[in-house]
Amino acid sequence: MRVAPVPRAERTRMRPSTLAKTAGAAFATAAAGGLATRSAVDSKWYRRLRKPGFQPPRAAFPIAWNVLYTDIAAVSASTIDTLNDRGETDRARAYTRALALNLALNAGWSWVFFNRRMLGPAAVVAAGLTVSSADLARRAGQVNAPAGAALAAYPLWCVFATALSTRIWQLNR
């Protein structure tokens, strides 16, 4: 059985310049979050927090986030370039704005939780990040279903992070 070729306009293309921009944004988000997190994780305040039994080991977080940031950068670059190649520049700009909001919420959570030590507001930011991440995956999936599926791990992780943040807040009121 012969598979029909994908029309040129429907092929997913990713320009190195777009990937550099989305990867740079993801890296900046990771760096900003790391600045807020690094010293706080070793502080007495954090060590004294009561944490739920379902909290993963400390080493799991950088592994998970590095994989997710890589996924966010690649899927976002592909989505933006595909939309631009189709002539859907308004949708490409809307996706870019949604990505910027998402990354701001992502870095913001670390600052609210670790730097400001505001556990309740951090749980709210985590919930907002979950909604934003699901929206990003939905937008990517509308452009390219496999890309949306690849990004689905991000909102799932954020659901877990919201549950974890909320439970830490509940245990430490």
Automatic annotation (TrEMBL):
Pfam families: TspO_MBR (PF03073)
Biological-process GO terms, alphabetical: tetrapyrrole metabolic process
Principal subcellular localisation of the protein: membrane
Keyword Translocase: no
Membrane-related topology note: Multi-pass membrane protein
Entry keyword Cell division: no
One cellular component (GO) term of this entry: membrane
Subcellular location: Membrane
Keyword vocabulary terms for this entry: Membrane, Transmembrane, Transmembrane helix
PANTHER family: PERIPHERAL-TYPE BENZODIAZEPINE RECEPTOR, TRANSLOCATOR PROTEIN
Family: Belongs to the TspO/BZRP family.
Record's protein name: TspO and MBR like protein
UniProt source species: Mycolicibacterium vanbaalenii (strain DSM 7251 / JCM 13017 / BCRC 16820 / KCTC 9966 / NRRL B-24157 / PYR-1) (Mycobacterium vanbaalenii)
